[in-house]
Amino acid sequence: MMDVLIAGFGVVGQGITEVIRDKQDLFMKRFGERVRIVGAFDRRSMALDPSGLDPTELLSRKLATGQVGKVPVATDIEELLRETAYDMLLEVTPTNIVDGEPGYTHIRTALSAGRHVVTSNKGPLALRFRELTELAARNRVQLRFEASVGGAMPVINLSRDLLMGEEIASIRGILNGTCNFILHRMKVEGYSFDFALREAQELGYAETDPSYDIDGVDSACKLAILANAIFERDVTYSDVVRTGIRGINEEAISLAAEQNKVIRLIGEVSRDKLEVAPRLVPAGHQLSIGGTLNIAQILTDMAGDVTVVGRGAGRMETASALLSDILAIFKDEEARRNATRRAII
Predict the structure, then answer these.
(1) Is 331 a known active-site residue?
(2) pTM, whole model, 2 decimals?
(3) Are 171 and 298 in contact (CB under 8 A)?
(4) pLDDT of 200-246, one tens digit each?
(5) What domains does the chain contain, in order, with CATH numbers?
(6) Angle (CA) 316 126 309, round 5°
(7) Which residue of the set 23, 62, 187, 222 is catalytic?
(8) How far is CA 254 from the centre of its chain?
(9) Which of 299, 322, 26, 72 is nearest to 170 (CA)?
């Protein structure tokens, strides 16, 4: 049995709860074990039961009351994370790029207590990547974060696992679906930036305060994570050269069209480059993709360009990436147990 504790029960927390409920047959068929939710908490409430919580009940309560639990959340979350019995923390609280909290404390405490961590939270990773990964290594547990970059688009695990024999020269692409939607609508419909932004907000693609997306902050966080995870750099979000899309107007879109090009917010990372900025992209090029999709081109020495496209955000899209990391930990634990058995024999 793999016991998990869920920190955060917003859209992503509810999504991974659905997945855990619906994928029990997969866990049993592949690994002979189930995943059991023994705790969950949001900003105001918590639910704990060492014998397991009913995922459907958690989801129904959240929908009906806005709270995941029946009791107020513990005042000392660190003690809760240290003392509760569980194997893995699913840290899915919202990203905070100022200081990484509360996700940073959640992740640090769980790792220090010898628990695996799977997270979608960009803040702690974009600010304290080296510290957290070294802490995981010292405590012989895993910190996995596929869901922090590209949602359902597998960039990190693809680069580190399936392409481990390649020399990766660079990764570039569109890492923010909100910006891509705005720029695409400005080109296709002739909208002003403000009108396209309002449409994105009405459709739920952009927040009421859209600065995190349109100023390139979200993309910069993801680039910092990629720089550290793939290129073994030691950088933070503030090291990214960043230009957002606020200055893009109808005239810029028209001038690009006259050259048979489109404007896209492109992030690029290599061993000596770390930048996100609007760029001219030839129409029809892979990076001219429209809508809310994300795309990443991984330039390798043997395979050439490896391109992946996917939805970069969303309830089930992010849950899909979290699931891939949960399964990876299952697989590694299985390999470790088998190696121990062979050594004993």
Answers:
(1) no
(2) 0.94
(3) yes
(4) 999 988 888 999 999 999 999 999 999 999 999 999 999 999 999 99
(5) 2-151+316-344 (3.40.50.720), 157-312 (3.30.360.10)
(6) 40
(7) 222
(8) 34
(9) 299
